[in-house]
Amino acid sequence: MTAERRQVHLAAHFPGVNSTTVWSDPTAQSQVEFSSFEHFARTAERGFFDYLFLAEGLRLREHRGEIHDLDVVGRPNTLGILAAVAAVTRHIGVVGTLSSTFNEPAELARQLATLDHLSGGRAGWNVVTSSDAFHGGNFRRGGFLPHPERYERASEFVALAKKLWDSWDDDAVLGDAAAGEFLRAGAVHDVRHRGKHFDVDARPTVPRSPQGRPVIVQAGDSPDGRDFAAEHAEVIFSRHAEFDDGRRFYSDVKGRLAGRGRSEGSLLILPAVSFVLGDSAADAEEKACEISLQQISKPTAITFLEQVWNRDLSAYDADGPLPEVDPDPGEQITRGWARAFEENQAKISAWRAKAEAENLSIRQLVIAVANRHGFVGTAAHIASEIDRYVQNRASDGFVVVGHLTPHGLDEFTDAVIPELQERGVYRTEYPEGATLRENLGLPAPHRLTDEIGATA
Ligand SMILES: Cc1cc2nc3c(=O)[nH]c(=O)nc-3n(C[C@H](O)[C@H](O)[C@H](O)COP(=O)(O)O)c2cc1C
User: Fold this and answer.
1) Whole-number Cα distances in Å, 120 to 123, 148, 169
2) pLDDT mean over 315-340
3) Does domain 9-278+378-453 have CATH number 3.20.20.30?
4) Of ligand 1's atoms, which has the minimum distance to the CA of residue 224?
């Protein structure tokens, strides 16, 4: 008997606020108007994706004291977009990135339960702790919480949110006109929570939602982040898209589950991956080079180096050799990127060696080190690669990242999805009425009962 082939899970990442997204392409459209989100969502649903995914930046990125506007700047609010997307789709999940550092549990739990109601059980929450204090400037707390305490807060946040989501019994709303009873007596439980970060006596206002709780996604990568995922997450949005690295990450995180009484299948790992499709391998490679030049313009290449050198390099020519000056150890000139650049001196030495050995200009070097296009090739090649990763436990699927708004996913949906279906590793229709959690094949979460009123 042959073993059943592992099924591929896919999420569709709306183009982000970074240099992957080519806003300068003549065919690129608005990142603000609803028509873009609608087109993207309909394409993803046509391709039977598990969910549409939105990243979120809480503050406009800055470079050398100015708003960084070489990339897309500005996006409408995540939950508003997702609610609108839910209204024009029927099956696809709607998952948003929302910070556990700068939100409050009762408020966010209420918003997410509402999204789950409005979407008929398709809501998900990518819990992020936000990378640096700079984001805090937009909130009353300013530069709030050192890294370890952010995960402590995140864990307490999600534990409390779960109690809030579980506080209404499924059958709480009676609507019994004859008896004059709207609610069943005792069916709404008060939530008492005393913890280091939250002290709450809540009586939640939103009835239990179709999934009970939204699907919990997580995107941190540190050891604390991985432990948090093993404790709470049902999906990890990872940056480990290279095959061997992906396998190491997969076994590391899945290995953390057993000690918490969780099965391997209760947590899916979906790395972010971009793609370039072509009619042949050579055609795809040629397109990849063209897209790289769009993504890494000359000013983008210089800015990229400035982030690492931490100094003004505007006098340098992007088509010329790397700067000979040393990096500046002073205060960071870049603010708001997802990850701070570490060990810059070592990085610069390696880049100098690479540029010299391969005779690369600044722009060519930046394209080589910063702009890898995940899967490049024909539709058949890309589908085989996705299948290989999933069968070999390098991932459970991918968060697919296109580079054009809003039609960057069209050709993937038209060309790669049929190839996956032909291989028997991808759905050919959505099960009618399935929730996001059911589409992901995840177990129903353990319902809290006695713990709700207990002090945490
Ligand atoms: C693949 C990936 C995507 C992320 N996307 C976002 C995002 O959209 N918004 C955000 O505020 N943080 C994002 N983050 C960063 C998270 O805020 C995360 O909490 C941060 O990296 C700190 O956690 P860590 O030290 O465990 O990585 C992302 C991280 C990863 C790995």
Assistant:
1) 8, 36, 17
2) 85
3) yes
4) 26
